[in-house]
Amino acid sequence: MIIGLDFDGTCVKHAYPKIGEDIGAVPVLKEFVRRGHKLVLNSMRSGQLLDDAVQWFNDNGIELYGANHTPGQESWTESTKVYAQIYIDDAALGCPTTYDGVNRPFVDWRIIAQAFGYDYNKLINYESGTIENQ
User: Fold this and answer.
1) Which DSSP category does 103 fall into?
2) What is the pTM of this model?
3) DSSP at 82
4) Which candidate among 25, 78, 90, 119 keeps its CA 20 to 30 Å from the CA of 42?
5) pLDDT confidence tier of residue 133, bands split at 50, 70 and 90
């Protein structure tokens, strides 16, 4: 499955144009990739700011399939909209968010993990190397 991902407020806290603080997305995004899903960054960022977001994925060991473009879609459409089967975006109606009382709401990755049938705590433990991969 191709999963379209916003960045600010979805993968990190809102801090645009800077890269925001961690919100717990990394273990879930890594699990998506481990299970064969393809991640496409779908962000308003461009130029160096987009490069900075892509670098965040690289720094966290998360493989991106595309950034503001779904590879191959030009073979069947001229649309510039990122193609995905699912979009995760803090601004999307129904996307689970949480709020720390300081900044804007951001995605609640514990609930996203649960929606995909993943145990967030096991993903955190796997990420830290304290349990075996299942």
Assistant:
1) S
2) 0.91
3) P
4) 119
5) very low
For residue 64, give the amino acid letter. Answer: L
Whether the Cβ atoms of residue 40 and residue 70 lie closer than 8 Å to each other: yes
Q: Which amino acid is at 113?
A: A
Report which secondary-structure segment, H or E, holds 106: strand 106-107
Q: Apex CA 122: angle with CA 99 and CA 28, to 5°?
A: 55
Output phi, psi for 80, to 5 deg. Answer: -95, -5
Structural domains in the chain plus CATH codes: 2-128 (3.40.50.1000)
What's the token pair of residue 113? Answer: 């993990």
pLDDT tens-place string over residues 24-60:
999 999 999 999 999 999 999 999 999 999 999 999 9
User: What CA–CA distances, in Å, run from 62 to 12, 39, 42, 65, 76?
Assistant: 14, 9, 15, 10, 27
Burial of 52 by CB count in 10 Å (0-12 exposed, 13-18 middle, 19+ buried)?
middle
Q: What is the pLDDT of residues 79-120, one digit of tens each?
A: 889 999 999 999 999 999 999 988 899 999 999 999 999 999
Pairing between β-strand 2-5 and β-strand 86-88 as defined by DSSP bridges = parallel
